[in-house]
């Protein structure tokens, strides 16, 4: 079946339970997107599903809500597994599933590389009804007998085409072979190349096919504009666009890591609250930037395409293609970062004189011409959040080599604390950048984090007694 618009159904019409509906109200979801409307009912019936949909169509809830209906929190086994291609997507899906399962008290454990495996082993020993993981770390935990899948009867392959691009399909098959033959399987992919179809034929049983057309995402919910500009004039043109458009949050896409750093410094020196995200940054720094941006504390993110894979933030109102994308598919992927799940968004592409042919290829691909952008033309009223040029602290460039101190917080999952809450509490109380907070681990009753050793005592003093989610924190230095 194929769909590009909703039929006016509510989440209640889809057959979801009271606790799940309450959780949806908690996160502010009002009505299902097309992929949710079509995928949730067959998944609730126990059918296998192939969902062809791009990021931003609501596919995480499309498989996440049926998982919450399926899981029995009174059983201590791993009952569902979600495989993701990247660490960023793993974290993102985990946060969403925890929100969906909060009312039902479903325990969701994230397992991914680049983080201490012993911590993840401890989380799995303590419980874990649903595991969300990257392919390599899942295999590692299986080999160590820390992750047992003999009771796992619901498996999701998320962004399967990216798993193919990264060379993970053989490992995915190894994992699937270790799950019960009677499992229910859902496969979600933006595209369906031959190896993905072959995988689906081999491991899914009479699946229901659900497809959301790309036009819903790229044309109906995103207003697209082009701006002709000389290369030397692009920084000033970007400043003008941001002044005129006044975005809640904007992602500015560039082609290279060097350009990313350069543009970040230009905007920062103009007094804008901005962060950079690219592949040469440490994973801890990237996580800090993503958490800060997702929490809404930074309005402008300058990013490369690779670093932004898996970014799923519903509050992004604008995308600016500072550099024309390398392909029409990349253009679609970029502008899909705004206009999320039925919300409206705006995309402005800077076009240099030599790039007209690339622009024409994009227009052919999306099946429409892109309107010229004019300053003051139908721009939304929300102001850009700029920071003053005076700072209570000097800006510190962190290269990861400075001494670190480990802090413990009294408060954890049982108090409703999340990683983003802790990072937000530290930055709000001390003025530190989100990048300065790393190695955040939230356990049941305690949490741990790492901060620069030179500022650890100040962080302890600032956090102690501060209330987060209605509960006072107590912080102490432990290393």
Write the layout of secondary structure elements.
Blueprint: E1 2-3, H1 18-27, H2 34-44, E2 49-52, H3 59-70, E3 80-84, H4 87-100, E4 108-111, H5 117-126, E5 130-134, H6 135-143, E6 154-157, H7 160-165, H8 169-177, E7 184-189, H9 194-203, E8 208-212, H10 214-220, E9 222-228, H11 234-245, E10 250-254, H12 257-269, E11 274-277, H13 283-294, E12 300-304, E13 318-321, H14 328-335, E14 345-351, H15 356-366, E15 371-372, E16 404-410, H16 419-430, E17 438-442, E18 446-452, H17 456-463, E19 467-468, E20 471-472, E21 474-477
Explain briefly what this protein structure is.
The chain has helices spanning 18-27, 34-44, 59-70, 87-100, 117-126, 135-143, 160-165, 169-177, 194-203, 214-220, 234-245, 257-269, 283-294, 328-335, 356-366, 419-430, 456-463, and strands at residues 2-3, 49-52, 80-84, 108-111, 130-134, 154-157, 184-189, 208-212, 222-228, 250-254, 274-277, 300-304, 318-321, 345-351, 371-372, 404-410, 438-442, 446-452, 467-468, 471-472, 474-477.
Which stretches are poorly predicted, pLDDT < 50 over at least 5 residues? 2-6, 214-218, 379-388, 390-400
Q: What is the percentage of strand-forming residues? A: 15-25%
Strand order of the largest sheet: 1-8-2-7-6-3-5-4
Taking all Cα atoms into account, the compactness measure Rg is 22 Å
- The number of E-state strands comes to 21
According to CATH, what is the class of the largest domain? Alpha Beta
What's the pLDDT, averaged over the residues?
82
Estimated structural class? alpha/beta
Question: What is the count of helical runs?
Answer: 17
